[in-house]
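cron nightly-structures :: item 1 of 1
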Amino acid sequence: MDKEYLIKKWLKETLTDAEKQAFEKLDDAFLNRYIIDSAKYFKASHAHKMDDFNTLKAQYKSSEKAVKKINWINPFLKIASIIVVALGVYFTFFFNTTTIVETLASQKTRVELPDRSEVELNVLSSIEYNTRNWDKNRILTLNGEAYFKVAKGKTFDVKTSSGIVTVVGTQFNVKQRKDYFEVKCFEGIVKVVSDTIVRQLLAGDIYLILDGKFSNGKTLVASPKWTNNMSEFNAIPIKEVLSELERQYNIEVTFKNIDVNRLFTGGFPHDNLEEALIGITQPMNMTYVMSTSNLVIIHGE
């Protein structure tokens, strides 16, 4: 049966049972199937136009003489191509050891690192780390807010877009949001570096950069309140409080006649939206309206 005829029908997937048997007996049937199966995992350029079979045939005929000169190494090329693909798969699966954990709005999670260190991830936050040689290279990238309980060992670095927190074994909380970077140390010693501002924190110390301005403070609590479903603020602009409310409840908050830089001290729960709104608005002499299930309008005086 004509080889070219079989290949055309095979490409169109119209082979009869008898033709399939004939195709399987072709000397390069395995290579043809391998090429087609492998091609499924590659995406062609949008600017590329596939030639039809007759065009490819003409191109093949014009270069047939040159191709025939290397026919003697075809078996080696087949083996080499299979080895290259196999190595690519091996390195992808066995050497890509990066782990990424993300949370959504109103979602929290707890992660145990390879050295038994623990990370509690607040809403709309993410961490990224590499498990390879973790005991010797404990580096983690944070976007958002997380509470760390670090097992003793080599230096442990938490990198954020606002600064780096370095510890050996301790408990601390890092919050990194837009124009907001805060580190609270609950146990042990923490070193914080952000631009030119370097501080060493002891248990109870707070490091805060808000809208580009640095300040320090103290906390008497043993762990961050958000891990117990409560957000707490001490002289923080109301705009930051409302942003956290949006993250915890996956809602949108708009406000009218409000000074967004007015400072708020207090907190709100994460499991009851109405109580949270009352806890924020009443101390500030504000009112609120729940326009829809996910839209809240807050009014000033």
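cron nightly-structures :: done
Helices lie at 3-12, 17-24, 29-39, 53-62, 64-68, 74-95, 238-249, 273-281.
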